[in-house]
Specification:
Elements (H helix, E strand, L loop, with lengths): L5 H14 L4 E5 L2 H12 L3 E7 L6 E6 L12 E3 L8 E2 L13 E6 L2 E4 H7 L3 E7 L1
Antiparallel strand pairs: 1-3, 2-3, 4-8, 5-8, 6-7, 6-8
Amino acid sequence: MSMTDPIADLLTRIRNAQMAKHATVEVPASAMKLAIVGILRDEGYVAGYESVEDGRCGILRVLLKYREGGLPAIRGLERVSRPGRRIYRGKTEIPRVLNGLGVVIVSSPAGILTGSACRAKGVGGEVLCSVW
């Protein structure tokens, strides 16, 4: 079975693992997923990640993060641009998530960046997902 949207799969696995209160979740690795999980770590939504060699594409193990009382650090994950409907935004149109409380992740010519980094660099791109 081929996967048509690996990024939606990553977000769904993180969402499901947090609902089940897992400490980690494993997803097939790719450069884009590595960049997305790196942003989630830098923004404080996941505790960290590690790459595990499996002889094929590799596995990305994401260490999930919880707040006081066992609540997940990620309240919401939403795929914005999908393979069937790509969403591109110019540097002035990059959306804000919950008035800046959340993060939008954008695939830009300068790499995979947060919405605020895109605004600072003056680049637009494909809006991959939003996290809050």
